[in-house]
Amino acid sequence: MDDKYRRLIDQLVNQTISKEDFDRLQDAFEHDADLRREYVALLGLCESLGEIALEDAAFPVDSERKTTTATTRSNDTSASHETPTAPARPRFTSMRFAIAATAWFLLIGSFAFWLGQWNQSRLVEDMVTDGETSESRIAGHATLRRMVSLQWPDDSKRYLTGDVLPNGPLVFDSGLAEIDFFCGATLIVEGPASLEIESDWSVFVSAGRLRASVPPAARGFVLKTVESEIIDLGTEFAVEVKTDNVRVEVIDGEVALRGGEHDGKHLVTGESASLKGTPSDTSVIEGLSTMIELDQRHQEAEADGYRRWIEHSTELRSDDRMIAHFAIAEGIRERIVPNAALTGQRFDGLMVGPVGITDGRFGPESLGLEFDRPGSRVRTRIDGEFQAFTFTCWVRIDSLKHRYNALFMGDGYETGEPHWQIRDDGSLMFSVMVDDTQQSEHFSEIDQQMVQTAGLHRLYYTEPFWDISNSGQWFHLAAVYDPANRRVSQYVNGKQVASEAIPDRFHITTLRIGAAEIGNWGQPFRETPWFAVRNLDGTIDELTIFNAALSEEEVGHLYERGKPLGY
């Protein structure tokens, strides 16, 4: 064995190995067959040494001598006064040998365990510090709470409703944005606007009109402009920033000004000042939306989006390629989730367990189904044979609390049946069972180890599209299984994020669904009450299945016609 790998194993056992060195050791075992053979031989040797060591350690120990030594030490007298018997030195040597052999045994055993548990170590390696799990962290200072008719410049960073805003620019050409800073201050900003988020307590404004509402908990919030700074002292105020003019007006409360010609001046309710340019007689707040007006405009925009989606959904139902269309957002009859496709009521879904009914992606105008408790699910049965699959849905993910989180799952996962899920790292995964009578073994790129599975199938993954900062946001997801062209493609918000060829071994042309579930998985073991806990901690408000491989343009069209406000 190469000395450098022996040193790496020593570091592993001593818990001083770096992530880079552990990766290097793992890669060596994966790609070097000779090294693996040497490892196996060394493992056998160490097992033998361990057995010898244990046999030696089983020799009887002089209990009287052990007691005497302990007593001598407890009385703080010198152990050197005690004369060892003849067998003492050989016994000490044997014990040293036992310790050394056992250490090597544990060394190799530890590495075998680490190798076998590589998947788990990969998932948590960045979250474990000194044996304790660290907290998840997100960089940011504010949240884009709501937006109405926001238009972004082509070259600017775009955000979605609910996004955490990091330090940096926030630029938009028109529309309204409501921004909640983590200190508690709220800004209603009217475009065109250009802001620089600096911290939880400060923002630099170079263009735009805005209304700032600052509660007592956020007292001290600072709004900066080119000429001066506005420091809140518990107030609501308005600011207008143009190229040649900057004005501030206090709506209620008090602000302090710092810098420029008004340095040190305080403004109270009803007072205003021009911080740059020529003073104006017009009010800064004239025409600027209030919180109530923003609420009204937001509700109107959601209602309009919902009406447009209803029109689109009605048109969509005439597509004879559609297997099922669960237009959850449109309504539910008691516990029945209607299938709005031409295939009719025979493919209706049934709400089972504690499924929650909540607002959909269009707010109170629409409905969504929550699956946040293990027993919640929507069951359906879709009989027949199909030539291709396209699955699409609108989903809001609150957390990924299970290893696998269900979107749509065939109950028994039998030949030809699909599984569509989200892995706990935020990646999409889609598969179709090719032969449920076979046992399959393959090297998992995700798990970085050989895995055995019941039945012959292949998992098709995307890169992670979701993390905790996206909690509560709506996503349009799509998976296209195209046997004719031997390809699986997956999409997020109308954009293709993965496309992979179907290998010959995993090619199947006759597809089925049968008994299946939305938002969970049934009882795949049949003979026992146990079931895999894969309920989605989130909300689905539309799910559609096609007997066709939709093109990228068609998937993009579904996203554009169905996207909610702020997308």
What's the short version?
The protein has 567 residues and is of the alpha+beta class. 24% of the residues lie in helices and 37% in strands.
Description:
The protein is α+β, with helices and mostly antiparallel strands. The chain is built from 8 helices and 30 strands. It has helices spanning 3-13, 19-31, 33-57, 63-74, 88-116, 118-124, 291-316, 552-562; strands at residues 128-129, 132-133, 142-151, 164-165, 168-172, 174-181, 186-199, 202-214, 222-224, 229-241, 246-258, 266-268, 272-276, 322-326, 336-337, 349-352, 356-360, 363-370, 377-382, 389-399, 404-410, 418-423, 428-444, 449-457, 460-461, 474-482, 487-492, 495-501, 514-518, 537-546. Strands 3, 4, 5, 6, 7, 8, 9, 10, 11, 12 and 13 form an 11-stranded mixed sheet that branches. Helix 1 crosses helix 5 (88-116) and helix 3 (33-57) runs antiparallel to helix 5. The longest helix is centred in the first third of the chain and has 29 residues, at 88-116. It is globular. It starts with a helix and ends in a 5-residue tail after the last helix. Mean pLDDT is 80; it is low at 43-131.
Structural class: alpha+beta
Q: State the shape.
A: globular
So how many helices?
A: 8
Detail the poorly predicted runs.
43-131
Descriptive labels:
567 residues, alpha+beta, eleven-stranded mixed β-sheet, nine-stranded antiparallel β-sheet, 8 helices, globular
Please outline the helices and strands.
Elements: H1 3-13, H2 19-31, H3 33-57, H4 63-74, H5 88-116, H6 118-124, E1 128-129, E2 132-133, E3 142-151, E4 164-165, E5 168-172, E6 174-181, E7 186-199, E8 202-214, E9 222-224, E10 229-241, E11 246-258, E12 266-268, E13 272-276, H7 291-316, E14 322-326, E15 336-337, E16 349-352, E17 356-360, E18 363-370, E19 377-382, E20 389-399, E21 404-410, E22 418-423, E23 428-444, E24 449-457, E25 460-461, E26 474-482, E27 487-492, E28 495-501, E29 514-518, E30 537-546, H8 552-562
Helix pairs in contact: 1-5, 3-5
